[in-house]
Design a protein that fits this description.
The protein is 24% helix and 22% strand. It is of the alpha+beta class and 388 residues long. The chain has one domain: L-amino peptidase D-ALA esterase/amidase (4-Layer Sandwich), CATH 3.60.70.
Length: 388
Amino acid sequence: MIRFLLLLALLWVPASAGAQTASTTGDDTRVRARSLGVPLGAYPTGILNAITDVAGVTVGHTTLISGDGTLVPGKGPVRTGVTIVIPRDDVWRRKVPAGSFVLNGTGEMTGLAWVEESGFLEYPIALTNTLNLPRVANGVMSWMIARYPGIGIQDDTLTPVVAECDDSRLNDIQGRHVSEADVIKALDGASGGPVAEGTVGAGTGMMSYGFKGGIGTSSRVIPSAEGYTVGVLVNANSGRRDELVMGGVPVGKLYGNSKTPAEGSEGSIIIVIATDAPLDARQLKRLAKRAALGLARTGSTARHGSGDFILAFSTGNVIPHYPKERTFPFTAFADTHLNPLFTATVEATQEAILNALTMATTVVGRDGHKAEAIDLKRVREILKSSGR
């Protein structure tokens, strides 16, 4: 009986992650990448090793899994969802400085033009699949209007930030199954604390490096008097099997044959970076660029068909909504002290992507397409034989 209860505890998924069905297979217990002994940099992680280590940042998921068998466009099977990152409470009135970088633009993250022009972010960030982007944007707008009824009347309008990846190999993407209600559920359920990873939320139908991918997160704390934190969350859906590198080891090439093809869609990745260091928009854009180096450490070359979108924000300053005065206080961070934050971003991005892989579970989707979770036993063997 005790063993049974322990097993239930290991397999339990938070309610906000949505219910799992027989479509997710019974993989052995999933663990995060550093538990496998993968070398992941020099800086310490935050307590949670998650984007929520940055105080005030919250994350919410709605996971949609239903149906099996042959694809019926508009009906299913469904393997999709939405993931929300909220930079801080009341971000509409207490905006956060923000900057972005597009490594390869075969994809979409709405709202970036205003982020680039204004240098701030004033709404939650939503992640979902490609064809669901407009419906998810509607959900964010409905949620915002309910909280700020003056939007578009006495107040400004809004252009939501919604980022997409293609989950059509596993999901009935034409069905656009993520509803406004699903988005609002994820927004209302967003919280600090541990973040569900792998086959959850927007990551439910995603594949990465020829394995099941999805949501991953990590953080780093800068060893200094201030102890600034950098947190990263990704939706990993890019890369091919033979490209995968884990801690410098070419795991993809050494892994061996699998029923999941190494070739196929070139996919995309969305990377969200949060920090409490008081950076401005220009510096956050520089931070976003460094995340591409963390992506490269996992083997990616940002292929022609990949959409690699990176958004960074800082909770270290507050930009007021409609300040009455012409000036407001803003802490400046010296560029000459940015290097530790750059390194932290690279390390956390690398680990977040690998966590997405090691925490994901095998999923059978539409038309029997199978996305295998990476075999952790096999990874351990490869790392051990490589002297790691």
